[in-house]
Design goal:
It is built from 16 helices and 19 strands. By secondary structure, it is α/β, with parallel strands linked by helices. Helix 7 packs antiparallel against helix 11 and helix 14 packs across helix 16. The longest helix is centred in the middle third of the chain and has 25 residues. Helix 11 links the parallel strand 9 and strand 10. Helix content is 35%, strand content 19%. The strands form 4 sheets. The protein has an 8-stranded mixed sheet, sandwiched between helices. A 6-stranded mixed sheet has the order 1-6-5-2-4-3. Bound molecules: ligand BES, manganese (II) ion and zinc ion. Zinc ion binds next to strand 9.
């Protein structure tokens, strides 16, 4: 679906379906005064009072022959806007617009959709003077409208009556006069949605179609599209550099070269920012996590094709950075491997030497994410002396037990950075909640044989994973990086559909990372 604009007299606005989002007890004429000219027939339509504005409620009105706005779709946003926070209003806009575009597609309305900007600014309670909140409303509405149409169709054949309904051809933003900041905000919303879509498609791809080599090729293509720097360290490079933990995770699958572990590196450095200390984002890229020799139970194991959701989010970020023209140097690392059992796989009890020099006893081969991440984090600090270092990973089932599958865990001892990630996430519908990094959790990782173990007891599993990673952050003598660890195991891959996302990969964290890089 294309995003376009109509700036001009409301009486001349045209649309196959004009979408108007409304809270309960609001009237169309009040949220969008231009309707008096754009669709005067609506305001006296006999069924108008049937619409309550309840969440998910939709009601379609047909205009008279020849009307410029042929139809109006009223879309409910739920009750009590005055009690809603800014983040909740933005959420209502995303969900309602996404619901409306999906509704139109489902009902065969695939022509030109449209939404008046005035209705969007009304929904966030803004007066005309407050450009920033109008822009934000537009950005979120457009992003939601596009993500509401997301489908995981890459592996459907399209034969035997399986052809999906066509997407609406376009969505126009309607305004009385052209507003450059509104148009820019709409483009931003579009870029965000495309970045999320990329991440979803990757994490939905099955492991036989998306191996570590495919992740690297994806990164290379992205780099070529946008003129970014890209390089890959293959298994031999990782071995030579001394990333014993990283290599151990991928050893079981390395017999197939496309499935061998690799570290893919992307760099975005706009002119004038080439030499600044970068934001470095490290993504867990386990293209399949069988558990390895500590094999997972078979029920639900297929979901572990999504265990590269962190790396997919980093790719989503890099899809957006150049298109948004972000003014900051950003480095992205995709720590890719396939965690498989096999004759060459690492065994429980194996001891590996990490790039940091510390040794780790692999007591559980299913705690593999931290093993690839620890070496990638060490490498990142040695090579770039990051200003901010963020890792994003589907790291622990314990985090899902703690927070559920709507909310991600946020581990960060820098109050300012933690607060920023939390509030940026909230504003884009990606909630993060702080969890502790107390040194006490490290006691669970005691090892008789090595410096420490890669896993402890079940209790507090998200925190002991985080404290494991902390052992590799800010080693003595290095320039200090502000570090945050994002455990997205819950929200990155869902077994149920949620608003604006079918079951499967969600692309969680992409939008927060984009805004973090942009802030
Ligand atoms: N990829 C999993 C974590 C996970 C679980 C992600 C559920 C998404 C949904 C991770 O590699 C893992 O297996 N973690 C173990 C760690 C344990 C063995 C210490 C876990 O959480 O059970
Ligand atoms: Mn695992
Ligand atoms: Zn895993």
């Amino acid at each position: 679906m294309k995003i376009a604009f109509q700036a001009g007299l409301p009486a001349e606005w045209t649309a196959a379906v004009l979408i108007v989002p409304l809270f309960e007890n609001e009237t169309p004429g009040e949220v969008c005064p231009e309707l008096h000219d754009a669709a005067p027939w609506l305001l006296s339509a006999p069924g108008l009072a049937d619409f309550r504005g309840k969440k998910d409620e939709t009601l379609l009105f047909h205009g008279p022959a020849g009307a410029h706005a042929a139809r109006v779709l009223l879309a409910g946003m739920g009750d009590n806007p005055s009690a809603k926070t800014r983040a909740e209003r933005l959420d209502a806009l995303r969900v309602t617009l996404g619901g409306a575009t999906a509704w139109c597609r489902k009902h065969g309305l695939a022509g030109a959709l449209a939404v008046p900007v005035s209705a969007l600014s009304h929904a966030v309670g803004s007066n005309d003077k407050d450009d920033r909140s109008v822009s934000r409303a537009v950005r979120e509405a457009i992003c939601g409208a596009l993500l509401g149409l997301y489908r995981n169709t890459a592996f459907k054949s399209g034969t035997a009556g399986q052809s999906p309904d066509p997407d609406p051809e376009r969505l126009d933003l309607l305004m009385a006069a052209s507003l450059p900041e509104v148009e820019a905000a709409a483009r931003e919303g579009e870029i965000h949605a495309q970045a999320v879509t990329l991440a979803r498609n990757l994490a939905n791809a099955p492991a036989n179609r998306l191996a570590p080599a495919d992740m690297t090729e994806e990164a290379a293509r992205l780099a070529a599209r946008h003129g970014l720097r890209h390089e890959t360290l293959g298994m031999d490079d990782l071995q030579k550099l001394g990333m014993g933990a990283f290599v151990a995770v991928g050893a079981g699958a390395a017999g197939n070269p496309r499935h061998a572990p690799c570290l893919s590196i992307l760099e975005y450095a706009p002119a004038g920012h080439e030499n600044e200390a970068p934001l470095v984002v490290v993504g867990k890229g386990i293209t399949f996590d069988s558990g390895g020799i500590s094999l997972k139970p078979s029920a639900g194991m297929w979901e572990m094709k999504g265990d590269m959701g962190g790396a997919a989010a980093v790719l989503g970020l890099f899809e957006a950075l150049p298109r948004l023209g972000v003014q900051r140097r950003v480095v992205g690392l995709l720590a890719c491997a396939e965690n498989m059992p096999g004759a060459f796989a690492s065994r429980p009890g194996d001891v590996v030497k990490t790039l940091s020099g510390k040794t780790v006893e692999i007591v559980n081969t299913d705690a593999e994410g931290r093993l690839v991440l620890c070496d990638a984090l060490t490498y990142a600090q040695k090579r770039w002396s990051p200003d901010v270092l963020v890792d994003v990973a589907t790291l622990t089932g314990a985090c899902v037990v703690a927070l559920g599958d709507d909310v991600a865990g946020l581990f960060c001892e820098e109050p300012e950075l933690a607060a920023r990630i939390k509030s940026l996430g909230e504003a884009v519908g990606e909630p993060f909640w702080p969890l502790p990094l107390h040194e006490r959790y490290f006691e669970k990782l005691k090892s008789e044989t090595a410096d420490f173990a890669n896993a402890g007891s079940r209790e507090g599993g998200a925190c002991s994973a985080a404290i494991f990673l902390k052992q590799f952050v800010n080693p003595e003598g290095a320039a200090k990086a502000r570090w945050a660890h994002l455990d997205i195991a819950g929200p990155a891959f869902l077994t149920r559909k949620i608003p604006n996302c079918p079951a499967g990969a969600s692309g969680f964290a992409v939008r927060t990372l984009i805004d973090l890089a942009s802030a």
